[in-house]
Amino acid sequence: MKHESVETNAGLLIILTLAVISIGGLVEIVPLFYINDTIEEVEGVRPYTPLEQRGRDIYVREGCYTCHSQMVRPFRDEMLRYGHYSLAAESQYDHPFQWGSKRTGPDLARVGGKYSNEWQVQHLIDPQSLVPESIMPGYPWLATTPLDYSDIEGRMIALKRVGVPYSINRDEFEANVEHFGGETALMLDINRAEDNLIAQAQAGNYDGDPSFISEMDAIVAYLQVLGTMVDFNEYSEGYFAEFR
């Protein structure tokens, strides 16, 4: 069959197009019926603590996602620059996820622990003081704006309704103890949300000013946890391939 005869016959072209689309769809859909889960089974991934969650809210509010993605793709050049490619498990508690497709700035999926708290604070206040070629605007008000956490319990309850395993009763707390461990389960308890937020902010002193809890404390706490939950040294490359 000549290609010209396909292009000049509308009915045949439609039929062949539908056939190709159907085959492509089946190739992608059928394998899903033969795997138990599309999320990798890894240790360490947990929901964000109240302070980290407020930091994430500020990150979204300030539009950081418009210039920074949080998804290391499985390409050699990206893995050499950013580290192990991103796993679905790492974003399972994100609503919405921050994968992104545009990188005016570098990817932040593995930024946690890469720089000190002091570096992060200075970079947010005046990016050009650390990276002269940066076009990122400064966010100095984060360091002087008190963090509003009066509605943190409500925020956690809303996330709980979409599947994030925060606990609000004894049974849910015990389930988190079994799944995440006792220390983490305490941080995920909605009834202790404000106390946990204050305790983490004071212990971490992320903004370098212990006199009050600022929005800078929250966003730095969030940035410092990104990419730190999974110890990739415990897994072989072949292990993650089983979930694709």
UniProtKB/TrEMBL annotation:
<dbReference type="InterPro" id="IPR009056">
    <property type="entry name" value="Cyt_c-like_dom"/>
</dbReference>
<feature type="domain" description="Cytochrome c">
    <location>
        <begin position="50"/>
        <end position="160"/>
    </location>
</feature>
<keyword id="KW-0472">Membrane</keyword>
<dbReference type="GO" id="GO:0020037">
    <property type="term" value="F:heme binding"/>
</dbReference>
<keyword id="KW-0479">Metal-binding</keyword>
<keyword id="KW-0560">Oxidoreductase</keyword>
<dbReference type="InterPro" id="IPR036909">
    <property type="entry name" value="Cyt_c-like_dom_sf"/>
</dbReference>
<keyword id="KW-0349">Heme</keyword>
<keyword id="KW-0812">Transmembrane</keyword>
<dbReference type="GO" id="GO:0046872">
    <property type="term" value="F:metal ion binding"/>
</dbReference>
<dbReference type="InterPro" id="IPR003468">
    <property type="entry name" value="Cyt_c_oxidase_monohaem-su/FixO"/>
</dbReference>
<dbReference type="Pfam" id="PF02433">
    <property type="entry name" value="FixO"/>
</dbReference>
<protein>
    <submittedName>
        <fullName>Cytochrome c oxidase subunit CcoO</fullName>
        <ecNumber>1.9.3.1</ecNumber>
    </submittedName>
</protein>
<keyword id="KW-1133">Transmembrane helix</keyword>
<dbReference type="GO" id="GO:0009055">
    <property type="term" value="F:electron transfer activity"/>
</dbReference>
<feature type="transmembrane region" description="Helical">
    <location>
        <begin position="12"/>
        <end position="34"/>
    </location>
</feature>
<dbReference type="GO" id="GO:0016491">
    <property type="term" value="F:oxidoreductase activity"/>
</dbReference>
<keyword id="KW-0408">Iron</keyword>
